[in-house]
Amino acid sequence: MTATTDRDARKAELRAAAARGESTPISPLGWLLFIVRVKLLIFALILLVPLHYIYRTFKYGSPFPEIFLWLAARICGARVRTNGVPLRRDVFFISNHISWLDILALAGASGTAFVAKQELSEVPVVGWLSRLNRTVFVKRENRMGVAGQINALREALEDNWSVTIFPEGTVTDGQSLLPFKTSMMSVLEPPPKDVLVQPVVMDYGDVAEELGWVGDESGINNAKRVLSRRGTFRLNIHFLEPFSPEVFQGRKAIGAEARKRIEGKLVEVLGKPLRPYEYPVDPVRYAPTASPDPNEALAATLAQLGELLGQSEDDWWVIGSAAAFLHGADAGTIADVDVIVGQSDFERLARHPHFQRYEDIDRTHFSSTAIGKWTNAPMSIEVMCELHVRQDDQWHQVVFESRQRVEHSGQVLYVPERLELIRLFERFGRQKDVERAQALRKI
Question: Which of 138, 147, 261, 279 has the fewest CB within 10 Å, making it most exposed?
């Protein structure tokens, strides 16, 4: 478990360094994977590009860019699965945006052309390939060029193309959704005849943050990181129900409808609310809100928890890092507050609009019969009905033998007694849990 924790911490450090604009190191095995993948891409180019140009001498609409981009996404490690049916013509796709891999995978799955940010054209090979697939690169701060770009899009739609835009104005981390910039949707004012809008969700699952091209990272460094990555990853493309832009009054209404549908699907696939994006994005005039003081946020969250459970019918316990903190130990970073409640209290909270209930998540080492999250506090409150710990390949329910009253933030809270909490951390077995057990022993 320690090795897994250390590996995850190392990945997080590399992501943070890349976001700062630093050149991230690549292992010898990573360089080998990078070279192999680049050679495979070159071989595919040598094979398919001549076929593309030969085909174009006889007929318009070559299938070879779509074939190549599908193959390129696979070479880069993506195992693409489509959900829903993509329209093949007379369609305006509106999608969230996580990586330059979006272009390879989405074009390979649907044959669409793109409107994408200018920086993507600077990614080696990808920029040229995207031009083969009729991508329109846009400098979103160039307001003087918008009219010409809209005319090019309108011509593409009138030629029965499928065209995709990424209206967030940049790539994100897969856990967020930025405001939509709707200037490119002016092509739908009025919409060309028979054109529909189809929202699309790019879903990279657990690897979204690892692959994401965020902050000040260069396109070259991101391409190196992706092409040197071990193994493959699942990329789900969700083609949502199309709608007619004629039903909505203007580009802003069309953008709002598409964003609402994309956000709903993202929340569904993530199983949790979206979080604010942590980097500024000038094209959509987005600036991250300042993070609250962690001590103030924790105090306010514990106070709200005490209010929520003050009239509880059953016993309940704060566990995890917040419980160690309430005992007076150095709990390290506290990301959220975990609480165990009875069935009746869980159902009472679940009826509240600020409570998001989701199916039990396989946590590998611990789990619950019912789980949800209170989302209206400064910090997330994770609410669990019962707690089960996996030991020796079997699940064991944790039955608390103690319940200690603690007054904090003007509220009465309950935690397991110190020795029982130490044993619980040791049963979890993760490095951070071992460290918290050690901190509690020093009290």
Answer: 147
